[in-house]
Design a protein that fits this description.
Order of helices and strands: EHEHHHEHEEEHEHEHE
Distance between the termini: 21 Å
CATH architecture: 3-Layer(aba) Sandwich
Number of domains: 1
Number of strands: 9
Length: 247
């Protein structure tokens, strides 16, 4: 299997990807959560939103976390529209979100042309408690199909239980490898997985391990470098392609 990693803005790079060239879009966009007011959205970093005050790691922030819900819906619709164009008939989109942005994400998915097929829950046992209320220990994965879903001999779970990695964690919102390796199986064997928000590259590593090709896009130079290193370790030098933002 091979991969290509683009460095640059997701929407700009997506416009250069050929029609009908990928089989699945699996992504965790910066979904601008945790801000009830304008000041909360703009004054707090991603690290402040998504890590506890006593966290011992010092992971880098990432951009794109300050949109209000209306602009987020418009922005995500544009991204998923470009992703739809780049996806083959029968291809699938999986988009991570949380309870705040679930309605916006389902709107964007459908406005972009995908036929919405539902959502899966990702339950995180190691999560912060909430005094006086219910623990927020769940995120969601909304999924849709371009056209009709191919009937394959494949049965995937409707929910996932796994905590974020603690050992060798390299990203604030890093997803568990065991979850991502199950999700990428929705892509046909030997097909191509596209992630417009590659982050530290977990989706790409999972795709390669499951026998799929990978196309990633990452805006942050810091995280693109980490993703490059992780993806490269999965392959030999001859298989590696690194694309610049102009591509």
């Amino acid at each position: 299997m091979t991969f290509t990693l683009h460095r640059g803005d997701a929407l700009s790079v997506l416009s250069t990807i050929a029609n009908d060239s990928v089989d699945a879009v699996i992504t965790d966009p910066p979904y601008n959560s945790g801000g009830r007011t304008s000041s909360e959205r703009t004054a707090r970093t991603a690290r402040a939103k998504y890590t506890s005050g006593d966290a011992t790691h010092d992971l880098a922030n990432f951009p794109g976390e300050n949109r209000d819900q209306r602009s987020y819906t418009r922005w995500l619709t544009e991204l998923l529209t470009e992703s739809y164009r780049a996806t083959r008939e029968g291809g699938v989109a999986l988009v991570f979100t949380d309870w705040r942005q679930g309605p916006a994400t389902s709107d964007a998915l459908q406005m972009a042309g995908w036929t919405w097929h539902g959502q899966m829950a990702w339950i995180k046992p190691a999560s912060r408690p909430r005094k006086g209320g219910f623990k927020q220990d769940c995120e969601y994965i909304l999924w849709g199909v371009k056209g009709n879903l191919p009937m394959r001999d494949l049965y995937l779970p409707g929910h996932f239980i796994a905590s974020q990695p603690r050992k060798n964690r390299v990203h604030i919102t890093q997803k568990p490898m065991e979850v991502m390796q199950q999700l990428v199986q929705i892509c046909r064997p030997g097909g191509t997985v596209l992630d417009p928000f590659t982050g530290s590259g977990t989706t790409g590593v999972a795709a390669l391990r499951e026998g799929r090709k990978f196309v990633g896009i990452e805006l942050s130079d810091h995280y693109a470098q980490i993703a490059e290193q992780r993806l490269h370790r999965e392959l030999t030098q001859d298989d590696f392609v690194l694309a610049g933002p102009e591509e």
